[in-house]
Recover the amino acids of this structure.
Protein backbone atom coordinates (compact mmCIF):
# COMPACT_ATOMS: atom_id res chain seq x y z
CA UNK A 1 0.00 0.00 0.00
CA UNK A 2 1.14 3.54 -0.68
CA UNK A 3 1.63 6.23 1.93
CA UNK A 4 -1.55 7.08 3.75
CA UNK A 5 -2.69 10.67 3.55
CA UNK A 6 -2.02 12.42 6.80
CA UNK A 7 -4.98 14.21 8.31
CA UNK A 8 -4.63 17.89 9.07
CA UNK A 9 -3.89 18.68 12.73
CA UNK A 10 -6.85 19.99 14.74
CA UNK A 11 -7.19 23.76 14.73
CA UNK A 12 -7.88 23.63 18.46
CA UNK A 13 -6.22 21.14 20.81
CA UNK A 14 -8.09 20.21 24.00
CA UNK A 15 -6.61 18.26 26.90
CA UNK A 16 -7.24 17.75 30.60
CA UNK A 17 -4.46 17.34 33.17
CA UNK A 18 -5.95 16.43 36.53
CA UNK A 19 -8.41 19.20 37.38
CA UNK A 20 -7.01 21.61 34.76
CA UNK A 21 -8.20 21.87 31.15
CA UNK A 22 -5.91 23.31 28.49
CA UNK A 23 -7.33 24.76 25.27
CA UNK A 24 -4.72 25.58 22.61
CA UNK A 25 -5.43 27.54 19.43
CA UNK A 26 -3.50 25.52 16.89
CA UNK A 27 -2.93 27.36 13.60
CA UNK A 28 0.63 28.53 14.22
CA UNK A 29 1.27 29.10 10.51
CA UNK A 30 -1.47 31.79 10.60
CA UNK A 31 -0.65 33.07 14.11
CA UNK A 32 -3.80 31.22 15.26
CA UNK A 33 -6.16 33.46 13.29
CA UNK A 34 -9.72 32.35 13.96
CA UNK A 35 -11.80 30.53 11.35
CA UNK A 36 -15.52 29.78 11.56
CA UNK A 37 -14.99 26.12 12.61
CA UNK A 38 -12.65 27.32 15.37
CA UNK A 39 -15.40 29.52 16.79
CA UNK A 40 -17.72 26.54 17.16
CA UNK A 41 -15.00 24.30 18.57
CA UNK A 42 -13.80 26.89 21.07
CA UNK A 43 -17.33 27.43 22.39
CA UNK A 44 -17.89 23.68 22.57
CA UNK A 45 -14.73 23.06 24.59
CA UNK A 46 -15.43 25.96 26.95
CA UNK A 47 -18.96 24.68 27.60
CA UNK A 48 -17.55 21.18 28.13
CA UNK A 49 -15.18 22.58 30.76
CA UNK A 50 -18.00 24.45 32.47
CA UNK A 51 -20.12 21.29 32.68
CA UNK A 52 -17.35 18.86 33.68
CA UNK A 53 -17.23 18.54 37.48
CA UNK A 54 -13.63 17.35 37.32
CA UNK A 55 -12.43 20.56 35.65
CA UNK A 56 -11.72 23.32 38.18
CA UNK A 57 -9.63 25.72 36.10
CA UNK A 58 -9.08 26.36 32.39
CA UNK A 59 -6.01 27.62 30.53
CA UNK A 60 -6.37 29.20 27.08
CA UNK A 61 -3.21 29.60 25.02
CA UNK A 62 -1.87 29.51 21.47
CA UNK A 63 0.59 27.35 19.57
CA UNK A 64 3.72 28.83 18.05
CA UNK A 65 4.80 32.47 18.23
CA UNK A 66 1.38 34.13 18.42
CA UNK A 67 -1.63 33.87 20.70
CA UNK A 68 -4.25 34.93 18.15
CA UNK A 69 -4.06 37.32 15.21
CA UNK A 70 -7.83 37.86 15.27
CA UNK A 71 -10.42 36.69 12.78
CA UNK A 72 -8.81 35.20 9.67
CA UNK A 73 -9.04 37.91 6.99
CA UNK A 74 -8.42 35.37 4.24
CA UNK A 75 -11.39 33.43 5.55
CA UNK A 76 -13.56 36.56 5.46
CA UNK A 77 -12.72 37.10 1.76
CA UNK A 78 -14.12 33.67 0.94
CA UNK A 79 -17.33 32.46 2.56
CA UNK A 80 -16.23 32.80 6.17
CA UNK A 81 -16.78 35.25 9.00
CA UNK A 82 -17.83 38.68 7.78
CA UNK A 83 -18.10 37.63 4.13
CA UNK A 84 -21.09 38.70 2.04
CA UNK A 85 -22.50 35.19 2.24
CA UNK A 86 -22.03 35.15 6.01
CA UNK A 87 -23.80 38.49 6.42
CA UNK A 88 -26.70 37.37 4.23
CA UNK A 89 -27.10 34.28 6.42
CA UNK A 90 -27.24 36.45 9.55
CA UNK A 91 -29.63 39.14 8.30
CA UNK A 92 -32.78 37.39 9.57
CA UNK A 93 -31.64 36.56 13.09
CA UNK A 94 -28.45 37.46 14.92
CA UNK A 95 -27.90 34.83 17.61
CA UNK A 96 -24.64 35.22 19.53
CA UNK A 97 -25.61 33.32 22.67
CA UNK A 98 -23.06 30.56 22.11
CA UNK A 99 -20.24 32.56 20.51
CA UNK A 100 -16.93 32.25 22.42
CA UNK A 101 -16.99 35.74 24.05
CA UNK A 102 -20.50 35.18 25.42
CA UNK A 103 -19.59 31.70 26.67
CA UNK A 104 -16.43 33.05 28.31
CA UNK A 105 -18.35 35.87 29.98
CA UNK A 106 -20.92 33.45 31.42
CA UNK A 107 -18.39 30.91 32.69
CA UNK A 108 -18.21 30.43 36.44
CA UNK A 109 -15.00 28.43 36.28
CA UNK A 110 -11.74 30.39 36.39
CA UNK A 111 -10.09 31.01 33.03
CA UNK A 112 -6.38 31.84 32.69
CA UNK A 113 -4.98 33.17 29.43
CA UNK A 114 -1.38 32.06 28.88
CA UNK A 115 -0.48 34.82 26.45
CA UNK A 116 2.32 33.25 24.44
CA UNK A 117 2.63 35.99 21.80
CA UNK A 118 0.78 38.83 20.08
CA UNK A 119 -3.01 39.05 20.50
CA UNK A 120 -4.78 41.33 18.01
CA UNK A 121 -8.40 42.25 17.43
CA UNK A 122 -10.57 39.25 18.26
CA UNK A 123 -7.53 37.65 19.90
CA UNK A 124 -7.09 40.63 22.21
CA UNK A 125 -10.77 40.43 23.16
CA UNK A 126 -10.40 36.72 23.98
CA UNK A 127 -7.39 37.48 26.17
CA UNK A 128 -9.18 40.30 28.02
CA UNK A 129 -12.24 38.11 28.66
CA UNK A 130 -10.11 35.67 30.65
CA UNK A 131 -10.02 36.21 34.41
CA UNK A 132 -6.22 36.42 34.52
CA UNK A 133 -3.46 36.85 31.98
CA UNK A 134 0.08 35.55 32.30
CA UNK A 135 2.20 36.92 29.47
CA UNK A 136 5.37 35.81 27.81
CA UNK A 137 7.85 38.64 27.33
CA UNK A 138 7.14 38.28 23.60
CA UNK A 139 3.41 38.94 24.05
CA UNK A 140 1.63 42.03 22.79
CA UNK A 141 -1.92 43.34 23.00
CA UNK A 142 -2.75 44.98 19.67
CA UNK A 143 -5.90 47.11 19.63
CA UNK A 144 -6.07 47.34 15.83
CA UNK A 145 -9.77 47.25 14.84
CA UNK A 146 -9.82 50.96 13.98
CA UNK A 147 -7.05 50.30 11.44
CA UNK A 148 -9.20 47.59 9.82
CA UNK A 149 -12.36 49.67 9.53
CA UNK A 150 -14.21 47.86 12.32
CA UNK A 151 -14.61 48.04 16.10
CA UNK A 152 -13.74 45.63 18.94
CA UNK A 153 -16.64 43.34 18.12
CA UNK A 154 -16.17 40.64 20.72
CA UNK A 155 -16.36 42.34 24.09
CA UNK A 156 -13.31 44.58 23.97
CA UNK A 157 -15.26 47.85 23.89
CA UNK A 158 -17.21 46.67 26.96
CA UNK A 159 -14.46 45.20 29.10
CA UNK A 160 -11.50 47.51 28.44
CA UNK A 161 -13.14 50.61 30.03
CA UNK A 162 -14.04 48.44 33.03
CA UNK A 163 -10.45 47.27 33.37
CA UNK A 164 -8.73 50.60 32.79
CA UNK A 165 -11.29 53.39 33.03
CA UNK A 166 -12.73 55.39 30.15
CA UNK A 167 -9.78 57.65 29.31
CA UNK A 168 -7.14 54.90 29.15
CA UNK A 169 -9.42 52.62 27.15
CA UNK A 170 -10.25 55.44 24.73
CA UNK A 171 -6.56 56.20 24.24
CA UNK A 172 -5.73 52.58 23.43
CA UNK A 173 -8.71 51.90 21.15
CA UNK A 174 -8.91 55.24 19.33
CA UNK A 175 -5.15 55.40 18.69
CA UNK A 176 -5.00 51.69 17.80
CA UNK A 177 -2.19 51.17 20.31
CA UNK A 178 0.02 48.09 20.43
CA UNK A 179 1.09 47.35 24.01
CA UNK A 180 4.07 45.15 24.78
CA UNK A 181 4.02 42.75 27.73
CA UNK A 182 5.66 45.17 30.17
CA UNK A 183 3.31 48.04 29.26
CA UNK A 184 0.35 45.67 29.60
CA UNK A 185 1.45 44.67 33.10
CA UNK A 186 2.03 48.27 34.17
CA UNK A 187 -1.52 49.09 33.06
CA UNK A 188 -2.88 46.08 34.92
CA UNK A 189 -3.99 44.20 31.79
CA UNK A 190 -1.75 41.23 32.57
CA UNK A 191 -1.00 39.78 35.98
CA UNK A 192 2.56 38.63 35.43
CA UNK A 193 5.24 38.63 32.72
CA UNK A 194 7.55 35.62 32.45
CA UNK A 195 10.14 34.25 30.08
CA UNK A 196 8.62 32.32 27.15
CA UNK A 197 9.90 28.96 28.37
CA UNK A 198 8.30 29.51 31.79
CA UNK A 199 4.85 30.51 30.51
CA UNK A 200 2.97 27.21 30.62
CA UNK A 201 4.68 26.07 33.81
CA UNK A 202 3.57 29.29 35.51
CA UNK A 203 0.03 28.99 34.16
CA UNK A 204 -0.17 25.39 35.37
CA UNK A 205 1.05 26.39 38.85
CA UNK A 206 -1.61 29.10 39.07
CA UNK A 207 -4.31 26.75 37.77
CA UNK A 208 -3.19 24.08 40.23
CA UNK A 209 -3.44 26.51 43.14
CA UNK A 210 -6.95 27.45 42.05
CA UNK A 211 -7.93 23.79 41.62
CA UNK A 212 -6.76 23.01 45.16
CA UNK A 213 -9.35 25.41 46.59
CA UNK A 214 -13.04 24.67 47.08
CA UNK A 215 -14.42 24.64 43.51
CA UNK A 216 -17.98 25.58 44.45
CA UNK A 217 -16.71 28.54 46.45
CA UNK A 218 -14.50 29.67 43.56
CA UNK A 219 -17.39 29.46 41.09
CA UNK A 220 -19.72 31.34 43.44
CA UNK A 221 -17.08 34.04 43.95
CA UNK A 222 -16.58 34.50 40.22
CA UNK A 223 -20.33 34.64 39.62
CA UNK A 224 -20.76 37.32 42.27
CA UNK A 225 -17.86 39.31 40.83
CA UNK A 226 -19.39 39.16 37.34
CA UNK A 227 -22.94 40.03 38.42
CA UNK A 228 -21.60 42.75 40.69
CA UNK A 229 -20.41 44.71 37.65
CA UNK A 230 -24.03 45.68 36.98
CA UNK A 231 -25.51 45.64 40.50
CA UNK A 232 -25.85 48.13 43.30
CA UNK A 233 -23.90 47.37 46.46
CA UNK A 234 -27.08 46.51 48.37
CA UNK A 235 -28.22 44.05 45.68
CA UNK A 236 -24.78 42.45 45.54
CA UNK A 237 -24.71 41.93 49.32
CA UNK A 238 -28.12 40.21 49.20
CA UNK A 239 -26.97 37.94 46.37
CA UNK A 240 -23.74 37.08 48.20
CA UNK A 241 -25.65 36.00 51.30
CA UNK A 242 -27.91 33.77 49.20
CA UNK A 243 -24.83 32.09 47.77
CA UNK A 244 -23.32 31.80 51.23
CA UNK A 245 -26.38 29.99 52.60
CA UNK A 246 -25.95 27.39 49.86
CA UNK A 247 -22.22 26.99 50.49
CA UNK A 248 -22.81 26.43 54.22
CA UNK A 249 -24.66 23.22 53.30
CA UNK A 250 -21.86 21.72 51.19
CA UNK A 251 -19.43 18.96 52.08
CA UNK A 252 -16.62 21.27 50.98
CA UNK A 253 -17.54 23.79 53.68
CA UNK A 254 -17.39 21.09 56.35
CA UNK A 255 -14.09 19.84 54.93
CA UNK A 256 -12.65 23.37 54.97
CA UNK A 257 -13.60 23.84 58.64
CA UNK A 258 -12.34 20.38 59.64
CA UNK A 259 -9.05 20.89 57.78
CA UNK A 260 -8.54 24.23 59.52
CA UNK A 261 -9.20 22.70 62.96
CA UNK A 262 -7.01 19.67 62.18
CA UNK A 263 -4.25 21.92 60.79
CA UNK A 264 -4.04 20.00 57.52
CA UNK A 265 -4.53 20.73 53.83
CA UNK A 266 -8.18 20.35 52.78
CA UNK A 267 -9.25 17.84 50.16
CA UNK A 268 -12.23 19.33 48.38
CA UNK A 269 -14.61 17.23 46.30
CA UNK A 270 -16.78 19.91 44.76
CA UNK A 271 -19.87 18.78 46.65
Amino acid sequence: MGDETKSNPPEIVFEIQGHVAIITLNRPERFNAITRPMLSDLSRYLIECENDEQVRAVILTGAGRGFCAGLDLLDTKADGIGSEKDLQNRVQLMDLRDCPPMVMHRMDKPLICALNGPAAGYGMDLALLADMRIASRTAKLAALPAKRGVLPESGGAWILPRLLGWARAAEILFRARVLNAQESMELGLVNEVVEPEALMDTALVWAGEIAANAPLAIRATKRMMRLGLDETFETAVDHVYLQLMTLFRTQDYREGVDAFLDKRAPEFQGR
Observations:
- Confidence is low (pLDDT under 50) at residues 1-5.
- The two ends are 54 Å apart (CA to CA).
- The longest helix spans residues 36-51.
